[in-house]
Amino acid sequence: MHKKNEDEITVSSDRPLDIKDWNEDHVRQWLLEIKVDKEGADILYNEKINGASLLLLEMSHLTELHLSMNAKILIINKIDLLKQKNQQQNDIVTHSYNLKPYPFGRFNAAHRYRENSILDVTETGPKDYIQPCHEFKEFINTTEENKMKKYTYEVIRFAAACMNSRTNGTIHFGVLDTPHGQIVGISMQNTDTFDVQQLHAIEKHFKRDQKQDDKQVQIAKRCIKPPRFVEVLKADMTSTGKFVIEVDIEPSSIVCDCSYFNTYNLVIEQDSMQKSTAGESKKDYGKSFLIRNSSTCKNLITSDSLKEYEKYIKDMPRLSQLRKDAEDKHLFLVKSSVQGSKLCEMITGGTPSLDRSHFEWYIVVANKSHPVQLENLRFLLHMDLVAVLDFDPESAESGLIKLFEERKTNVHSPAHYKITGAVEDIANKLKLTKNTSWVFCNGGINEENPSDADNWLIEKGSSVRDVVSFLCRKDVLPHKKFLTIFLILSQVSNANDPLLATFSMFLQELNGGNQILCIIDNETSYTYWKELIKGWCREDILTRCIYELSFAEVNGTVLSLWSENRKSSRFLPCGGGSNVVLSKKTEDDLDMLRILCVNQCDGGNEDKQHHEEKFYKGGKVSWWNFYFSEQPGSMPFIKRDKFDYIINTIIPDICSRKRVCEFFSIFHLPGCGGTTLAMHVLWTLKDKFRCAVLKDTTDDYSSIAERVVQLLTYETKEKPKRLPVLLMIDDFQDISDVKKLQLQIEEEWLEQNIFSTSPQVIIVNCMRAESSEQTDDAVFIGNNLSKKEQELFEEKLKEFKKTNTNTKTFYGFMILKNNFLPKYIQGVVKNTLKGFNSKDKHAQLFAVLVLLHVYCKNAVLSVSTCEEFLGLQTKADSKSRKVEDGFENFSTLLIRCTVISKVSFQGVTVIHSSIAQQCLKELSASHRVTKADITNLLLTKDLLYEYTLGKQKLLQDVHNMLVRRQYSVEIEDSLFAPLVQDIMKEKPGMEETVLCNAAKCYRKDAIIFQLLARYYYIKKQDFTMAMDWAKKAKDLSRESSYVCDTVSQVLVRKLKHAFREDKDDPIQPVNLEKYLTLAESAAEACKETQQTANKEAMTRLQRQNDYSIYNTAGHLGELQIAATVIEILQKIPPYKSHSELEGPDTKQLSGPEEESGNESYFHVMEKHVNFLNQLKKTMKQHFDFLDNFFVNLVPLFAGKDKQKESIKHKVFKYFQQYTDLFCKTNWSELYKKSMHPTEKILQTRECLEKNKGDSYTGLVEYLYEEDSASALEEIIQQYDYILKFTEENKGLIDLTNFIYANVVLANINPESQYIMPYQELCKLLLDIIDRPRSFSEILPLYYITVLLLWQEANRDLPTYVSQMKTLYLNELKPLYNGKRAAVHFYLGREKGYGSLISHRDINSCLESGQDISTQWDDEKIWKQVRDSKKLCRVSGEIRNNFIWVADVKFMVDPMFRSQLRKESGTRVTFFIGFSMNGPVALDIL
User: Fold this and answer.
1) pLDDT value at position 4?
2) Which of 441, 415, 425 is closest to 363 using CA atoms?
3) Rounded Cα–Cα distance for residues 523 and 533 (Å)
């Protein structure tokens, strides 16, 4: 409990706040509280010392009164503190501000008072009978026992006076007389008692006794309203816990007529009154007749005379008529308002409905709300609110944000809006344009204290300025396409109110008030607001305010502007014809998905013609197109041939499978209707599946998975069976990205601890491709319509003609109908570009759009960017002008689209890819505008990137155009991006200018600098410039191994170029020195690349869902250098005389015998002796590393290893060079030779190395090669020889490799005579398993041990598996990210070698073209495997995401956890695959 400071002075709630108003009783009470003895207190009391004189007391006065020293010290000390307290109180009063009273006759008005503010009314008598008179009562010096008596006395007295005077009135309790009208409030526990006691008092005082008729009582009850308790807030808008009690009196003419009202037995108790009445002990007024006389209540029944009373009674009919006339006049004064239509005009921006509003987004700024207002603010729930700036610190408990509990909001503090990085990244983090950002602008978040009005600007103004500035940026929200709505929910009457400062901020940022709307629900609050804004901003806001409508009317008006489709509930299917309501909040949560509901488009008022024109012109299809095609009188939507195949074959087949998430692909050429087909499938199946479209192709797969599973399980968690989700994705870069998403969905499904034996999510993958064969899981849409499709298009064209539809610009439709006929496309483009002038801004911008469309998928320019570039925003009619108008004739080839990116926005793009391609040709041929010209324009026009929406996406798109290369079967490795290569062909040499401009545009971009380095060393052979750019790139991105590798590539290319250009034969010593120095530098750079790749790989392991693979460039680079050095050495005299370099010892490289004439070469090589001595060892290490990497690890997802495919021919070439130099011995000749065993063993090892038989990875690789049996037989013979002559000291590696050779050969050619019998091989294995061994020997030994001893059920098997898994993680840790351990063998049904089945055995029973090693995730293939009976099916029990196998007594991993489709404890059967990371379970049933 807080301990009060000894010097702290408190003022009792029973004493007036102003100390000068204290009487002698108050002073005596205070003296006793500060520990002055009773005697001293009585002395001052008897001297009638009040508050005013107390503050003037000095020590001399106290001495004269003969007070004790103790009393004098206490009083003088405390008086100083009392003076400070009084001054603080006076300061508060000085800084107080006026407030209008609570609206008369209302009980649910959202009105609150602020402590110490002044009511903007005075105590008065009758005015015009309608305008209420007021009376203030402190009610703070009354004891608890007399509080109710005081209350009822004052109410009855005031009420009777008002009723007899026929004037409305309000009596306020908790409001001071001095300072006049100051609000202090009253603390109370129970409010119900006041109403009950008030009714009792009416019954008691408005009739003389029980016998009298109670007519007067009934009238009084109707005139005297129940007490109203108005909350009192602190200056910072938080609650004080106090209230002002108010009672309204309304003596309406229809209720009172000509009645008059006597009161009886009104008693004033001494203790219940203020000091002014303390002299009267008790007085019975008996009958009284009260009226309002000025600011007091006057009793006309006195002991002196009744004349005044009788005269007043006689005049009552006239008074009653005056009241009635006043009421009638008041009704006539109510003006007919036009503000309803004004609100419609302002909130839509002049459009007929909010569905088609000029404004894309809305910002709301609101102050403290009252709970009674919330129901009438529900229109906000339907608005596209980008942000709400909430100034209520208690909003979370009882304010506006409570209304939004049924919507998704992201709560932020103003600090979140401070620009600390890229603007679009901040907007993305805030989720602007995805969910409403709720900004607490005056505390109420993160335990931040609110500020009062006087201190807010200093304490919080700056951070809120950041919010306003951020939201008004042109690269955050579309310029002039958002409206800021100020909701004045509480009266603003303080000139320092935060809302005024915030209004000023918006006014400045928006350059005026045309994008601001103020909504206030009463004219009084409006008057305050208008005058304060005028004082703050010198701005007249009359035209921007709605103030004559109540919030109920505002709510109804705004809601009426939405179509029924927007307001009505949306439904998701549940199966069996049942549906559930999709709540708004859930749909907000699913912000990455566009949900297709069962009742999609129902009740909409969209324009059919608008949607058809947009689609057939070339825009993306919308749900409305399908909806309109199903309406009576409309032709059905055109079905593509592949539609029925997907609906009737692919999807039913997928539904019969067992994997949780499956996918099928619609491959298509651009503009051929692939996306339309996919959406048509979803529309057709929206009753049978929960359908959704992924909005953006983000790589945040885990977040997408969360939303997909949430959609799947919404309102179905308790159901044993649920409808699957049909998820459409569009334009993923690679099929592996689809598989990453598939894996994440399955992982998320498992996290929910739900199990299923059928697909729960089916992904419809819509992807661009040049060609593709139709398979069980894929279709291809080309640019040739079938005969049936052509007939449907002809029929649709006839329908257009019947309805007089203008099809002139239906280019998308006509291109398809004409099967992409070049003549038609050329004609359209030539005719449209007839007046093209490259000096015109709209022509330049059109050319940029064309280039973007051709070279970057989904690239657009935002509408805001186009408007800025064309200068449309600065024109007077900018609001009425569309961006299409700015493009003039070219607008027919352009179309708008919505872009969902970090920030959502409206974009402009070319209608069709074939149109864009033809435009580029036409611009070049007819108008001499080259691709280089357009690209340079794009890179040098700063206006395209300055503070406009979509800036970051545009920068990324342009970046991709310049950098992203195409990889295909035909072109293994394109050296540059297609745009750069096309510029080289069209205008050679201009590409350098383009790339230099790119470097200026992307001033700190390592990838662009890397591109320049590559350009200079590949195309220009300018290695100095290349190294300069490479080093700049490396400085910017030191943690990237790919950027780091650029330095080594510059050196390697420089070495190869210099050697290639050297025509001297033999090479001169001076050049040899240069080449070897360069080679050493390049090798060092490659080593740095390897180190960076290792660090990079370890970092990736820490990141969740990072599937990036290890970069092998550094290893390949060193092999390349070594191979080049070998070629160089073959051209110098010491070796030139030999047909080939001799080995195997590297001494032959570094130390040739000094011969006459070779001294200079010898001296050069001496300098590089260490490098040359390590050459063979270095090459061998890298060959082993790459073998280890590619044999033990395969891609995480089924498919070919593209990384391996891309470099294998290079590695093979380097290995050939290596073996030609160091491994020249031929086994067939060596086998017959007679020589010393030691020498023969050395040459035999040379043969092993040549055949890659000296490592287990080389031996395993034979499983994947054709005609490898003879090589393996040679290897076994070679090991037989080596082991025979090393009987006593047989090496563990030799024995292990020998076992591997036998196992692999037994699989490839089981009939071979060289294979050791299985049992003997097992015995050999058991003999060596416990031998001491080095770390590098353990993993391959344990793998082959598990492989051979599985069927023996060896008791040590669990130990071997456990240690093997640990070794795998340790040894391959930097390498396995984005990979999985390769399965080389499967457990077969037979015994001995027959129990080990390889992929080639399984492939033999599959259809042509199928391969289990790249299609292991295909359920159909596993069905064929089951049918072949080749593999042994093992049973086990699911336990904690593993499978317990009782036969071998350990857990087996599933290949992926998602393959465990059943609950823990369930029995399953499966196949066993053997990988370096332990046995894995496959085809789990």
Assistant:
1) 35
2) 441
3) 15
